[in-house]
Amino acid sequence: MALSIAESLKLKIEDEILMFNFKPGERLDESRLAERYGSSRTPVREALRQLAAEGFVRIRPHRGAVVSGLSMAELVEMFEMMAIYEGVCARLAARHATPDEMIQIEAGHDACRAFCEADDFDGYCLANARFHESVYRASHNSFLIKQTVSIRNRLGAYRRFQLRRNNRLRDSFREHQAVLDAIKGGHAEEADRLMREHITVQGSHITSLITRLPPEYFPDSPKGQAAAVPPRWGSSTYPAAALAFE
Hints:
Structural class: mainly alpha
Radius of gyration: 18 Å
Number of helices: 10
Order of helices and strands: HEHHEEHHHHHHH
Number of domains: 2
Strand order of the largest sheet: 1-3-2
Low-confidence stretches: 224-229, 231-246
Distance between the termini: 20 Å
Shape: globular
Largest sheet: 3 strands, antiparallel
């Protein structure tokens, strides 16, 4: 499952954004990016379009692409909803998945295994998307699928970032196995719970990631308070959404 040139460039550019090498508001010139990464402008342009679809850059008519600023509140709220949506997808998949759909879910899981054993981070990311999207389709709820994919596309880079930082490949794969077993067994509530836990970590882990991000990542926050954590995150009983890889 090799990455295309555009997909590879997209991952490199989003890594640069997440590491703050490209700052919010900075213009991303296609020619300079092509020179930086040793490619032509065409795959750079496609990579920027993909990043724009996920909200990481804004493409302005006749002016090119710039790095988007982030809203901390929006980021947290999207992760909260992502945990809920993916849990419901798994619950419905446990009830409605056809034999062919189960084959697709298992195929995605097997691909994750191969990349996990090879310590292939980029390959695992693609296989992971295949696994989750197979679960979405098995829910047989088109509205839910559309909403889940929309949020997933926006949050994908943050999940990859957390996966890389925490070396979560093997933990992620083990969690996939538990979700898969629950879906295969028709255990709807268990599948829901396991999928939410797969995406979710407690507020202390969210705080850990947020406080490492530069203040400039949150332009809507008061100066000096960009990394402040909403009070509800401090509660051990609050089902806070995770800034963790799915």
